[in-house]
Amino acid sequence: MRSFLFFVFISVAFLAIQACSSGNGKDKSQAVKKEDSPVPVEVLIAKKTSWTSALEVSGNLQAGEFVEIRPDASGKLVFLNIPEGSFVAQGTVLARLYNDDLQAQLKKYQAQLALAQKNEERLKKLLEAGGINQQEYDQALSQVQTLQADIEFVQAQIRKTIVTAPFSGKIGLRQVSVGAYVSPNSVITTLQNTQIKVDFNVPEQYLSKVKIGAAVSVLVEGVDSPLEAKIIAYEPQINVSTRNLKVRAVLSNAPVNVFAGMFAKVMLGASEKQESILVPSNAIIPETRGKKLALIKNGKVAFAMVETGARKESEVQILSGVSVGDTIALTGLLFLKPNVSVSIKKVK
Known about the structure:
- The chain is of the alpha+beta class.
- It has three domains: 39-53 and 274-347, conserved putative lor/sdh protein from methanococcus maripaludis s2 fold (Beta Barrel); 56-64 and 195-271, Elongation Factor Tu (Ef-tu), domain 3; 75-191, CATH 2.40.50.100.
- It is built from three helices and 23 strands.
- The protein has helices spanning 2-35, 100-129, 134-160, and strands at 39-45, 48-52, 55-63, 66-69, 75-80, 87-88, 93-97, 162-164, 169-171, 181-182, 189-192, 196-203, 215-220, 227-234, 244-251, 263-268, 273-280, 285-287, 290-297, 300-311, 315-320, 327-329, 342-347.
- The strands form five sheets. A six-stranded antiparallel sheet has the order 2-17-21-20-19-18, with no helix packed on it. Strands 3-12-15-14-13-16 form a six-stranded antiparallel beta barrel. The chain has a four-stranded antiparallel sheet with strand order 4-11-9-6, with no helix packed on it.
- Helix 2 runs antiparallel to helix 3 (134-160).
- The longest helix has 34 residues, at 2-35.
């Protein structure tokens, strides 16, 4: 009886082991089968496309000429001519400071000069006739020259009390009132001309687009169509921190609703067209030492290091690493490894 039970136990154990072995083998075969199954991807056939290689950079609008109007001397304002928001010509008197004391001093020196000149003329005749020596005449001449210098100094002080427009332009807002005591630190108003320029920075790899006289397109808020500007100058060296070159352009005809200080988008090379391979930006795989694309060759994955160029909103220019006709994977990039089999779901 015991022998029979032992035989039954051994038989059941053997059958259980066989069942487990059969199950594990089945799971392994399914895993291998699942691992070897092709990865479904969407692809793009590389081809050259005609496109405008415009470079978009950020810029700021600046006034062609801008200055804060300040007096050259300290004193009380007795006259103001600040037509806010209006155009004034160069040399227009904008303000005057109290200068009656200087005017009185000027008249005093002028009277003394008239007397000294008459004395000098009289002594000159006596010197020619031998009535006086040279030293007496020189003293009279020196007095005339001293008074002339004093008059020039007082006149310069009077000019400092008169504030004029240094150039033609539009007056800003008045900051002071008549009767106020001002100094060279006091801002009376501002003045800027009607010319508008735009300053922007260009990365060093795009310096070929920067040429004196080249046209650029400027987009600003509130203006529907792009504004035309021409490059007039750039800095003599590149900023070593940002590797950018500062460039300046002047707007041809700035609308009245365009002001200095506004943010602008500047498009360089908008009229230049070229043939290039373009790929969606999400197809680019960043690497520590560069960028790569997943290519499909004979149904398997092969990665290629690429050099990129200009960027558009959703596309990137490929300069090298890919040829026309290559098949580029666009989806499933996280599951792709070298020599992995793929199945193409869609071709773009």
